[in-house]
Amino acid sequence: MRHIISLLMENEAGALSRVAGLFSARGYNIESLTVAPTEDPTLSRMTIVTSGSDAVIEQINKQLNKLIDVAAVMDLSEGEHLERELMLVKVRSESTTREELKRMTNILHARVIDESESTCTLELTDTCARLDSFLQTIGPDRILETVRTGALGIGRGERILKL
Amino acid sequence: MELTGAEITIRCLQEEGVEYIFGYPGGAVLFIYDALFNQDKVKHILVRHEQAALHAADGYARSSDQVGVALVTSGPGLTNAVTGIATAYMDSIPIVVISGQVPSYAIGEDAFQEVDSVGITRPCVKHNFLIKDVKDIAPTIKKAFYLAKSGRPGPVLVDIPKDISNQKTEFIYPDSVSIRSYHPVGEGDGVQIARAAQMLLEAKRPMIYSGGGVILSGASAQLIELVRLLGFPCTNTLMGLGAYPATDKQFVGMPGMHGTYEACMAMQHCDVLLAVGARFDDRVIGNVENFAQIPRKIIHIDIDPSSIAKRVKVDVPVVGDLKLVLNQLLSVLRNGKQKPDASDLAAWWKQVNEWRAKGGGLRYNNSSEIIKPQYVIEKLYEVTGGDAFVTSDVGQHQMWAAQYYKFDKPRRWINSGGLGTMGFGLPAAMGVQLINPGAAVACVTGEGSIQMNIQELSTCKQFHLPIKVVSLNNRYLGMVRQWQQFFHGNRYAESYMDALPDFVKLTEAYGHVGMRIDKPSDVEPALREAFARKKDLVFMDFQTDPLENVFPMVPGGKGLSEVMLDPNAPHPQVEDL
User: Fold this and answer.
1) Does domain A2-79 have CATH number 3.40.50.2300?
2) pLDDT of residue B195
3) CB burial class (10 A; 0-12, 13-18, 19+) of residue B26?
4) pLDDT of res. B577
5) pLDDT, tens digit, for every residue of B336-361?
6) Does the annotation mark B51 as catalytic?
7) Using an 8 Å Cβ cutoff, are B289 and B268 in contact?
8) What per-residue confidence (pLDDT) applies to A151?
9) CATH topology for the A82-152 domain
10) Which of B127, B146, B152, B181 is the best substitution to test chain A (most A C-beta atoms within 10 A)?
11) Which residue out of A57, A68, A73 would a mutagenesis test of the B interface target, given it has the greatest number of B Cβ atoms within 10 Å?
């Protein structure tokens, strides 16, 4: 099953490789991993999307907690949470098709952030699943490149991951 | 006063009360060696290979409750040490490794003797640090010692670039250490412990299975009290031998691949299994599916949550320091009125004793013509009064030592259980002898393993370490040969040890006493003579039966109930194995 795990860790060189190494050494799967410092610059927050049996997910959580640099771990999928992912998509956009593309981006709540004579770059923030369906709607023939951040997650309401 | 990073490093070791460090100098640690030269509190033991430095520090830690310390240079110094670091990691041994690194400005330039030490050791340390500022040395070393010995112990590496070891700063050693992301556990959860107590009291076929964690936690006394209070059978894993006295009648022997028949059967058929500081290793419980065939409730006490429910499902997990948790459990049991059901327990013991009789204990077919390796260990046990520190290498001799030397005290049996590192025994014995001066220290080895670190005979000479090397020389890599005999159609691929040196001459060349023993009747006199030589290292080259196999044996991938007994040993006939 798919799980989204958030963790707080020391913002130090090597911390990221300890987490990545844990997954690769034990054969765990990483769908996406995203990391950046928090409002406290000595801490980084990482979001990992992974999948596995209940036993594997339990081990992942325990192993993450065991890392000395990791201060707190929360499996967001165990409760109510929100997920967002940012995606940039560059599409082929000739003058003849541009209007249609813009209509579509409006409907799908994407933003145009760059245009050239033949291309158009869109920005979209949504759940991973909606980003997938956006790409399907645009169609693979038109897409020149895509770049995605991987999912970010946060608990709903009073579900807070903080030291 | 300002001190250099190198001086600070040595001062930190002094502050930690370190008496011995094991190391090997090189370019990147020259300043640290210079600082070592200018003092006499920390004594340096010069090994002949960095792997041995780690194993010696490891033996030092295992046979005491101290942190072992090793000092190695960058590049090959560190890579040589990796096997020793991984050995300590697998068995949760507290070690601080200080490694030199190329100057900080040269890192990443493929400098001479440069290797990414923090990267290479990351998967086999509890934690590691690369020092980037001389001011960080003292607080980092403080943290390293704290991390190594607290919680589930393990090796911690501190990598110090050469230029930083020569920069100066004020030396302040922190009084205390706190790491916001690290909180080792103490007592266990009271509710879980009460549940565990109830489950134990209601068990009809209870079994206590204890591992290396009991020794690491110093909880042997608590374990003994618990086993006696409840009256249950107890087994110790390879790593846990000595935590419960092997000569006690409630001890059923070691479980697992080369465990006793009764320990294997009792593990398999119990209805409540209390696991204490043991991790359901594949060599201990065999095939997981087979183990799960007979339903049993499992209570698992461990300091490391990730050890719980890793290989088997656990009904009552208790996370905590074993010594504290066992004290809690004991107080619940003592304060309660309920006792285990005497008739159920008597019936269970009857069954266990039947297995004991069926298995016939540990037996082998002794001979008056050829030395049986088991016989050497039995005599070693007798000659040393069961009170020696015994280190071992890895293979058949390790299993025979574990089976036939009946360890009654913790920290007496020193072996590489998790990683299974050949070459461990002799350097580990050096560390054991240093922290236990005057004690009888035996290194049980084979002609294969001993050659992996035989150069340490030179270290033993320099530092007057009167270790007794008990080499069971069967001219084969015996355990490999045994598996080839059983599972690979007797095709002994590369398991024959040809062109062996004359170990007596070799030992003498290093300045020690060598003996070659060919006849069974000479085994005991040789051991007596060797152990009487209190000041000498004696290398005993026992010429043993080349084709002897280790039994009982649970073949790899099989379940505990599929344990095979020695077909040649004079044990009672068992038809329903």
Assistant:
1) no
2) 98
3) buried
4) 39
5) 999 999 999 999 999 999 999 987 77
6) no
7) no
8) 97
9) Alpha-Beta Plaits (3.30.70)
10) B181
11) A68
B373-555 CATH? 3.40.50.970
Residue of A nearest to B182 (CA): A68
Mean pLDDT computed over B492-514: 96
**Bridge partner residues of A43 (DSSP):** A10
Active site residue B192: no
Cβ proximity of B270 and B242 under 8 Å: no
CATH 3.30.70.260 domain locations along chain A:
2-79
Residue B132 annotated among the catalytic residues of the structure: no
DSSP state of B67: P
pLDDT digits (tens, 9 = 90+) for A23-74: 999 999 999 999 999 999 999 999 999 999 999 999 999 999 999 999 999 9
State whether B122 and A18 contact (CB < 8 Å).
Answer: yes
Task: Say which amino acid occupies B399.
Answer: M
Task: List the one residue out of B466, B471, B491, B467 whose CA is nearest residue B481.
Answer: B491
pLDDT at A104: 85
Which residue of chain A is at minimal alpha-carbon distance from B127?
Answer: A68
Q: Which residue has the tokens 């204990």?
A: B361
Q: What is the mean pLDDT of residues B236-243?
A: 97
Q: Above 80 in pLDDT, residue B575?
A: no
What's the CA gap between A124 and B86, in Å, rounded? 47
Assign a CATH topology to domain B2-170.
Answer: Rossmann fold (3.40.50)
